[in-house]
Design brief:
Helices cover about 35% and strands about 15% of the residues. The protein is of the alpha/beta class. The chain has one domain: Rossmann fold (3-Layer(aba) Sandwich), CATH 3.40.50. α1 crosses α2 and α3 packs parallel to α5.
């Protein structure tokens, strides 16, 4: 039996959040995630679009019409850049959307490798509430948990970046209980906001 990869765990975790659909366009930078979607046997539906920009707009529309978090998926470099228009639409309309994007292998980052773009900087405006890159399989759990939770809580755009070598590594579903690790869980309950009684303002 094949060892579960980081990408397999990512798709399983998205499913545990109750999210059943991802809009995206394939590319070399997300081959690991594409393989995991195929192995998931429909647990999370993959809607392949004609262009990455449409993936972001469709994730935004999904969020607006269903109230759920919309998810879009794109490869590194040009694919990730094409998401921006749709993500800004989501941000301006306060639609909760998570962008998942690939990146070159960690060893190549900073070497001007093919299609390498500084994705954290690229997404820092549209997804400034939460944009981070996975540097190890153990980080995937808290990255996807926080990206989904913050998108829901703030009704905004968040982004996680996953280098293609990390996508293929063995999954770490539960990080070890030791110093320097983070442990997160699935689920979000919105706060119940009650206005002050009339005449009680200071």
């Amino acid at each position: 039996m094949m060892t579960e990869t980081t990408s397999d765990f990512l798709i399983k975790r998205i499913n545990e959040w109750g999210l059943k659909r991802i809009y995206g366009y394939p590319g070399d930078g997300i081959n690991g995630i594409m393989g995991a979607l195929d192995r998931a046997n429909g647990a999370v539906e993959y809607v392949q679009v004609r262009h990455e920009e449409m993936a972001a707009f469709m994730a935004c529309a999904h969020a607006k019409f269903t109230g759920e978090v919309g998810i879009c998926l794109a490869t590194s470099g040009p694919g990730a850049i094409h998401l921006l228009n749709g993500l800004y639409d989501a941000k301006m309309d306060h639609a909760p959307v998570v962008a998942i994007v690939g990146q070159q292998a960690r060893a190549a980052i900073g070497g001007d490798y093919q299609q390498e773009v500084d994705l954290v900087t690229l997404f820092k405006d549209v997804a400034h509430e939460y944009v981070h890159m996975a540097s190890t399989p153990a980080a995937i759990r808290h990255l996807i948990d926080r990206a989904i939770r913050i998108a829901k809580a703030e009704r905004t755009v968040t982004c996680i970046i996953i280098p293609n070598d990390v996508q293929e590594m063995s999954a770490v579903e539960t990080p070890p209980r030791k110093h320097g690790t983070i442990h997160s869980g699935v689920g979000y309950a919105p706060p119940r906001v009650i206005p002050k009684e009339q005449g009680r303002y200071p």
